[in-house]
Amino acid sequence: MIKVFINGDEKRYNEGISFEQIAFEYQERYDNLIALVTENGKIRELHKTLRKDCELSFITLSDGIGHKAYVRSAVMLLMAAIEQVIGPQAAETVTVSFSIGHGYYCSLGGDRKLSESDVKAINREMNEMVAEDIPIVKKSYPMEEALALFKERNMADKEKLFRFRRSSAVNIYCLNGYYDYYYGFMLPSTGYIKFFDVFAFEGGLMLLLPEQSDPNKIAFFEPREKLFNTLMQAEEWGRKMGVTTVGDLNNVICRGEINDMILVQEALQERRIGEIAQDIVNRSDVKFVMIAGPSSSGKTTFSHRLAIQLKSYGLTPHPIGLDDYFVNREHTPRDENGDYNYECLEAIDVAQFNQDMSDLLAGHLVELPSFNFLTGRREYRGKRKKLGSDDILVIEGIHGLNPQTSVSLPEESKYKIYISALTGLNVDGHNRIPTTDSRLLRRMVRDARTRGASAGRTIQMWPSVRRGEELNIFPFQEGADAMFNSVLIYELAVLKQYAEPLLFQISKEEAEYHEAKRLLKFLEYFVGVSSEGVPNNSICREFIGGSIFHA
Prior knowledge:
Strand content: 15-25%
CATH superfamily of the largest domain: P-loop containing nucleotide triphosphate hydrolases
Largest sheet: 5 strands, mixed
């Protein structure tokens, strides 16, 4: 008998019992379904078996790691259903492109469109497989055998990806005769995937899943047309450069063509910034450019580059940070943990901001504040402005798109821009790169460089940052006049050199260890590239350093 400690209990089990069987015994103590376990601090899938004395703890679908396992498993269920409905090997042409809210957009390769009847049949097949509770079987293949399997099944994206991996074996999952590779942990069977919806969307389909905070209910779907079009543009840019997956990027790097690709990507971004500037100029009544986006979107560099484009049209832009309108610290609201909540709208003196902007619009001379983050107080240091006919204010802050922020200003005087790092690169066709991972790595590198913050601290703060974004930024993104995708298709290969040493500093004893390990595994897919070829006005420079701007 093997001795096991679980939540303070000492239990004894026969060797070889699965973690899933043990989880069933404890399930009633948890509000949400148990998805994974940790054995002496190491994450294990539920199909694994007990081999030695240990301490176990459970990970549910409401935990970040558990929710990610649900998403991956649901994607594999979808692919297996597509293969059954559309035909053998059809799933290999499908790309899981990006997420919109809690929906995942998927499309077939080539010109093939999915009909309403196709999608309904796929949905039925998925539900039938869930009812059958089919095992999701994991098997480790030697690298040569795995590559042969990928070739046999026309998975060219996975062939390219694993040419650059140093590991000698690959874990491949099988569901009802369908084989695929997934980056990360999976659920043990289809019976765990109880909540999903699949519906036709823009020539492809949308796989809608629960959000992490409420894993027992399918999330509400909001189409977000502007965001969809911006994400599709990112995909188009990738196709034009022949780089849609990490394997493609690694090929470019190894062929010595990365510098040209960097310049093309930067040129595409500059062209888009120029288009936005042209649109602003064409709207002659605009006096306030409001820029908002989630953390580590590159807002600062973007605003500088937009200002340069506006200057080329004869305008005189003036930067203003909404952070300078923070209320004094003693008046800052607190969150549920008693910490200052700097991300809620009430942390901004909205009334004073509107008064100052209205006075500027009326042609008055206004003294603008500066916020002293050391003392936690707003100060006035003689920064006076008066708007002339060619002057325009470029205002940056997370609440810039919220109508309440600028409620007293005429709509025609405002031009709103939503900026985010909307990843256009996939690991492979079925393993997407979440935009949150790109931004987290950006912030980690920047925080270490500019604030001396550890990677562990950045990871620890990230859930709170994300909650603030969900409340204060994402609901208003479709109200923007323009969207800008700040992601650079090459940037993760550059960030790798800076992020890995920071992540390796997180020890096994720290709560952030599992997330650090996941990110390190993710970065292993990339061939690293030097930052020497990155231009000094690039958004990437805002995070790695060396920017020509004060960023």
